[in-house]
Description:
Helices cover 76% and strands 0% of the residues. It is built from 11 helices and no strands. The protein is globular.
Amino acid sequence: MRGRKAINALVLTLSTVSAVIGLIFLFWILWTLASKGFDAISSKIFIYDTAPPGREESGLRNAIVGQLILVGVASGIGIPLGILAGTYLSEYGKNSKFANFIRDISDIMMSAPSIVIGAFVYAVLVAPVGHFNGWAGSAALAIMMIPIVLRTTDDMLNLVPTQLREAAYALGAPKYKVILQIVYRGAKAGIITGVLLSIARIAGETAPLLFTSFNNNFFTTDLNEAMPSLTVTMFNFATSPYEDWIDLGWAAAFILGSFVLGVNIIGRAIVKKKKG
């Protein structure tokens, strides 16, 4: 008994120390990001496009708008496909071999390196047309988003009690109405949380965009050409030797970090409200 208590105390101590160390690094990163990024924030960042070093009229408008377009188009592709695929697995595929195979593939895709996805989309959508384009960037982000939404939808729908479905069937409701009006409503909070987390995941990706949409120093909303993005611009500016570009890189990191943090907080709040 004493030996087990000693081992328990040792493991608890090591776990606590590890958690504290992790939190220290987390708050260190957040503090550095907030202190350097907030000082670089100004109104011109949202008014002017990126400019050569040394010019005061330089901002991140083109990168911010481009990032929103890429994430928005990717969400428009990935969210419906992920929800529909998750619905098929939960309501139609059940535990069939094909459904379990799709689940396994989805789990593999969730852990696949983003740069591999970027290289694949480059070979399919960039190399054949001969130039970078926003459609390819959105497709790469959508491919990363689909497995997350699919898996979350599948898990949340499986948590809806079977008795609710059986009661609806007993009243004569067709299957599609049962799914739309009963199953989706019961799993709404979980599905929305999965969608928000998938958006937060793709919003901070840089590697797949380097292979697909690349970057653009000018304002554009044309997805048929190279698109500016906040993540690639942040990478380029943060590694540049110019002080004004480095400041803009910190500002981009602060904006992106705030967005991702805000989306995650909203997702957690939805889950907490659902449990309450």
